[in-house]
Write a structure and sequence with these properties.
Layout lengths: L12 E3 L3 E6 L2 E6 L3 E3 L1 H15 L4 E6 L3 E4 L1 H9 L5 E7 L4 H13 L5 E4 L2 H8 L6
Parallel strand pairs: 3-5, 4-6, 5-7, 7-8
Antiparallel strand pairs: 1-2, 2-3
Helix pairs in contact: 1-2
């Protein structure tokens, strides 16, 4: 199975000031734009837009956070809890090695409500989500 590296303009997508997202083969792809700073207000908008786009359907989520420049603690806490709404599992793509170490530590402390893993390789992140795909 091939999954898009970038969204196919023929696939419905949504874009806001923070990210672009779309569904491809029953995985929700969520890719943050470059140099994004996420505070609590931004986190609430990000989650609300994603939930509206999903139209009440749960998906495994591929989240590419390599474009994020900074996320404050309040926003991280909000995303760890409220961000799990309508998600079956989340794979997070990061740049190695610092981002991964920081995020791994944060995930251990925040204990997300759904299966969540951090990856530096796109194909591994997608492979993690495959057991959560339903047609």
């Amino acid at each position: 199975m091939m999954y898009s590296k970038d969204f196919d303009r023929n696939i419905p997508f949504f874009e806001n000031e923070y990210a672009k997202f779309w569904v491809d083969q029953n995985i929700l792809f969520y890719v943050y734009k470059t140099d994004i700073i996420v505070n609590l207000e931004a986190a609430k908008k990000i989650v609300a837009d994603r939930i509206a786009f999903q139209k009440e359907k749960s998906y495994p989520v591929f989240c590419d956070i390599r474009g994020i420049k900074d996320v404050n603690k309040t926003a991280r806490d909000y995303l760890a809890i409220e961000g799990s709404t309508l998600t079956k599992a989340v794979s997070i793509l990061v740049d190695p090695p610092i981002s991964r170490a920081i995020l791994d530590f944060y995930l251990k402390m925040s204990k997300p409500l759904i299966p969540t893993e951090v990856f530096t390789e796109r194909h591994e992140a997608i492979q993690f989500l495959t057991p959560y795909i339903t047609l």
